[in-house]
Amino acid sequence: MKKLVLLAALLTSAAFVFAQDIKGNYAIKNVQTGMLLRVKDANSKNGTPLVAYYPENWKCMTWSFKKTEVNTYQLQNLLTNKTFQPIGSVAANTAFDEQPLVPGDGKQQYEFIAVKKDTYMIKLKGTDLYVTPADGKGSVNSAIVLASKRNTPDQLWNIYEQAPTM
């Protein structure tokens, strides 16, 4: 009986390690390319593509995490106050664009699946599709798309707190 109680305590503790809340403003950096998520040309117009860009301490590359459930967030851009979502129907190779943040909208919610400290796979809630750069080499302004799980570094994202200067 003591072993069962100890095992239950260990499992509960392990769950807390991976069920951490992300609070604040963060840059989201791809492990493979080193590029950050950004709305193209810092444009606030609806329909602006979500792209990869060199790391900068800018508002257009900083995202406020809005928790919706355990490990699930809506991301609000500090410059535009908008979010991103798949364009049209949700499927593999669908790109993202900028849209107004709508609380509770499933197409705007992302599960941050911890791989290690501050490194995540980002899955669109309710799907088996992950946020992935279209160009694995990380060219500037290349699209960000949904893709099936591959367990490759291009689907890993680091987050770090960012207080933008502009």
Using the alpha-carbon principal axes, give the shape.
Answer: globular
| Beta-strand content estimate | 35-45%
CATH class: Mainly Beta
- Distance between the ends: 59 Å
- The count of β-strands is 12
Q: What is the CATH architecture term?
A: Trefoil
Helix amount: 10-25%
Largest sheet: 6 strands, antiparallel, barrel
Classification by helices and strands: mainly beta
Query: Spans with pLDDT under 50 lasting ≥5 residues?
Result: 3-17
Backbone CA Rg: 16 Å
CATH fold node name: Trefoil (Acidic Fibroblast Growth Factor, subunit A)
Number of separate domains: 1
Helical stretch tally: 1
What would you say this structure looks like, in words?
With 166 residues, this protein is mainly β. The protein has one domain: Trefoil (Trefoil (Acidic Fibroblast Growth Factor, subunit A)), CATH 2.80.10. Helix content is 10%, strand content 38%. Strands 1-4-5-8-9-12 form a 6-stranded antiparallel β-barrel. It has a two-stranded antiparallel sheet with strand order 2-3. Strand 4 and strand 5 form a beta hairpin. The longest helix has 17 residues. The N terminus is likely disordered.
What's a quick, concise take on this entry?
The chain is mainly beta. It has one helix at 2-18; strands at residues 25-30, 36-39, 50-53, 63-69, 72-77, 83-86, 96-99, 110-116, 119-124, 129-133, 144-148, 157-161. A 6-stranded antiparallel beta barrel has the order 1-4-5-8-9-12. Strands 2-3 form a two-stranded antiparallel sheet.
